[in-house]
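W.,

You were right to be curious about this one. When I first looked at the sequence I had no strong expectations either way, so I just let the prediction run and decided to look at it fresh. Below is the sequence, 377 residues in total, followed by the output.
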Amino acid sequence: MYIADLLPASERKRYLRIRKFLQARVRASSIPYWNREEFPFGLLAEMGTYGLGALHVDGSSTLFKGMMYVELARADVSLSALAGIHNELIVGTLTALGSEEQKLRWLPGLKTFTRLGAFALTEPEHGSDISGGLETSARLDGGTWVLSGAKRWIGAATIADFALVWARDVEDRQVKAFIVETDRPGYAATKISNKIGLRIMQNADITLDSVRIPAGNLLPGATGFSAANGLLRDSRAWVGWQAAGIQLAAFDAARAYSLARRQFGRELARFQLVQQQLADMLGNATASLSLMVQLARIREEGKLEMAQAAMAKATTTRLARATVAMGRSLLGGNGISADYEMGKLFGDAEILYTYEGSYEINSLIVGRAVTGKSAFL
C-alpha cells in the first residue's frame, strides 16, 4: 500500500493532481531561479490556483497537508519552505491568535498567495535562545505601538506585505506579536545573499527603527511567548515532511542518473555499490515517511507534544542529510552541480538540518523529555 492510499478518495485525487503539477511545472523550472537566487512569482501564482496557500484552513486532513509538503519539497525545497511557513506560521498564527478584523483583512489574500507574510521571530544575537533572549521592543505610545529592534533569517521579508513581528512589551516584559506592514516608515529588509541552500527563499535581515503601528495591529491572542509554542511545535513537524520530500527528490535524481549514465561499458545501475546506495536512499526516505505518518495520526488526535515533533524533525533531517550525501556521491563530479539537481538538493538539505530548531537543539529537547533533566542553561 502506498501512503497516498491512506487518504480519502477525494483527497487522493487532489493529491495526485497537485503532484503532477509540481513535478511537471515546478521541479525543473525552479533550478534557474535557485542558481540566480531569484524568487519565481509566476510559479507562486500558479501554486495559489491549486489551493496551496490555504492548506491550513481548507479542512484538509493532517495527512493530506503533510503529503503536500512532501511533494512541494520533492519539487523544490525553497518553495516548500515558503508554503510551509505561510500555512503553519502565518495563516496559522492569524487564525489562532488574530482578531476578526485582522482575519478579514489578510486571510483572503493569503489563501490565494496574492498576499504574503513573514514570520519575524529570530534575531541577530538570538536563535535557539530566542524565548528568553528576545530583544526587539514594543512600547505603547498613546494609540500606537512603537517597535524597535532587529530580526535575522526572516523568510520572504523582502517581498512580504506584512511581517508578524514578535517583540517584548517594555511595560510588562511579555513577548507579543504585531502585524507590521512592510511599507511603514522605519521598516527595512535586506536580502541575505550567497547562501549554500534555500536560495530561492528570500531570507532577510530586518531593522525596525521606531516603527509606528496602530494599537489594533497587536494580535490579541499573542500575549506571552507561550502563545508561539504550539505554532513552533507544528512547524518542527512540518520540516519532517520536507525532509521526506527531499529524500524522494534525491532518490528520483539518483535513480534516473544511474539508468542513463554509462561507465566501463554499462549503466551505473548495474553496479552493486550503486544499487546498494539506491536501496539505502529509498529505505531512509520510507522510514522518514512512516515516522511522519505516525506523527500525523498523533497530531490529528490533538496529542502531539513538542518532544515528539522535535524527535521527528531531528531524525528525518539527519536521514535526509545522509540520503542526499549518498545521491551526491552516486553522481560523482556531476553531483556538485545544480544543473544535475543533486547539487541543489545537497545544499538545501543542510538548511533543513539547521532551521526550525537545529538538529542539536531538537535532540536536547528529546533528551530532556526522556531523562527529566534539562541540558539548557
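Here's what jumped out at me. Residues 226-371 form a domain with the Butyryl-CoA Dehydrogenase, subunit A; domain 3 fold (CATH 1.20.140.10). And, maybe more interesting for your project: The chain has a mean pLDDT of 93.

Coffee later to discuss?

I.
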